[in-house]
Specification:
The protein is mainly alpha-helical. 76% of the residues lie in helices and 0% in strands. It has twelve helices and no strands. Helix 5 (183-199) packs antiparallel against helix 12 (353-363), helix 9 (279-301) packs antiparallel against helix 10 and helix 10 runs antiparallel to helix 11 (328-346). The longest helix has 126 residues, at 32-157.
């Protein structure tokens, strides 16, 4: 410690030594003691330098230690914060997972309920459709029964008013139902009602009135064998009147001529059976004619047109065969019979084919 080697002096130079003036060469007259003292000084200087370096290193170590300690504390705090954040994130992740699981369960429950609601809705729609179809079917059945009953009444009575009333009532019921499936039926009923209104007339009433007039006038019709009374209302075989201012010979001549004409009658016989008809048989002839007219009236009321035409033809044949065609009453009766036959020919039975076809289609569900 007391001496220092020259290597130490050269290896660790200090700023002080660098600045101190160093002699280039030792003086040859210096003694060893002086040399020792110089070496001691140099060693002390070196020790001071080492001490200073050690102190600086210590200070630097202490500073570094404090810095490392601060960094450790900061890292510890950051680690604790990271651990806390990690635990919080884990907790949040667990809560999110639980929330997702609950949401999935709720979504599955909602889907199940939606499927149940859809199934119930489809069942409800089917039920409503079945109820609607059953209601429509009941409505169609009611309308068909009412229309057929009215059709029978119209065919029996010859009046289309019951049928028109039934068609109108059916039209109103279909309009209230508001079912598009029954629209063709409604149009068919309207067409048939319009056709019935356009063709409805008083033909039957007029025909019945003419038949009643004919039955009342049968007793006044003159027969062919009633030669005393002609259609003009005077006796064709009565002697001519004798003028008051005629001379006597003319009066005698007219008297003889009248007597001769009353004794002999000349005429052409078209129907021998009518001429040979006895007076009591005339009564039965008239009654038979009334019965035929009554049968024609009943047939007309029952809408049996063929029977009515046959009865009227027989009445016409009897009128032309047994009654005087020159009488005005007979001619009027013949004219009424012709008019009756024309009315019967033009009158047709009541028909509602479109409505019946539409009812059949609606009842079939098409």
């Amino acid at each position: 410690m007391s001496a220092a080697s020259p290597s130490d002096d050269f290896s660790s130079p200090s700023p002080t030594a660098a600045t101190a003036p160093v002699p280039a060469t030792l003086a040859p007259h210096q003694t060893p003691a002086a040399q020792a003292a110089g070496a001691l000084i140099l060693s002390r200087i070196a020790f001071g330098l080492v001490a200073l370096v050690a102190l600086a290193a210590l200070l630097m170590a202490i500073a570094l230690w404090q810095k490392v300690g601060g960094m450790k504390e900061q890292l510890a705090r950051q680690s604790a914060d990271a651990i806390a954040q990690s635990m919080e994130a884990r907790t949040l992740a667990r809560q999110a997972s639980d929330t997702v699981r609950e949401a999935s369960a709720r979504v599955a429950l909602v889907e199940t309920r939606v499927a149940e609601v859809a199934l119930q809705r489809s069942q409800l729609e089917e039920l409503i459709q079945s109820l609607s179809r059953s209601r429509d079917e009941n409505l169609v059945v009611d309308i068909e029964s009412a229309v057929r009953l009215a059709l029978q009444q119209a065919q029996v009575t010859g009046s289309v008013e019951p049928l028109l009333a039934a068609l109108k009532a059916g039209d109103v019921r279909i309009a209230r139902a508001a079912q598009p499936r029954l629209t063709p039926l409604q149009r068919s009923m309207q067409r048939d009602a319009d056709r019935l209104r356009s063709t409805a007339s008083t033909d039957s009433a007029e025909a019945l009135q003419k038949l009643d007039e004919l039955m009342r006038g049968v007793d006044d019709l003159p027969t062919l064998n009633a030669v005393a009374v002609r259609g003009t209302g005077t006796n064709a075989w009565q002697p001519e009147p004798i003028p008051a201012d005629a001379p006597w010979w003319r009066r005698v001549l007219l008297t003889v001529r009248g007597e001769a004409r009353s004794l002999v009658r000349v005429g052409r016989i078209q129907s021998p059976e009518a001429i040979l008809l006895a007076p009591e048989q005339s009564y039965f002839l008239r009654e038979n004619l009334k019965l035929k007219l009554l049968n024609a009236r009943l047939s007309l009321l029952s809408r049996q047109m063929e029977t009515t035409r046959g009865e009227l033809s027989q009445v016409t044949a009897s009128l032309n065969r047994y009654f005087d065609p020159a009488s005005r009453r007979t001619q009027a009766a013949a004219t009424q019979l012709q008019q009756l036959q024309a009315l019967v020919k033009t009158s047709e039975p009541v028909r509602i084919d479109d409505t019946l076809a539409a009812l059949a289609t609606a009842a079939a569900g098409r």
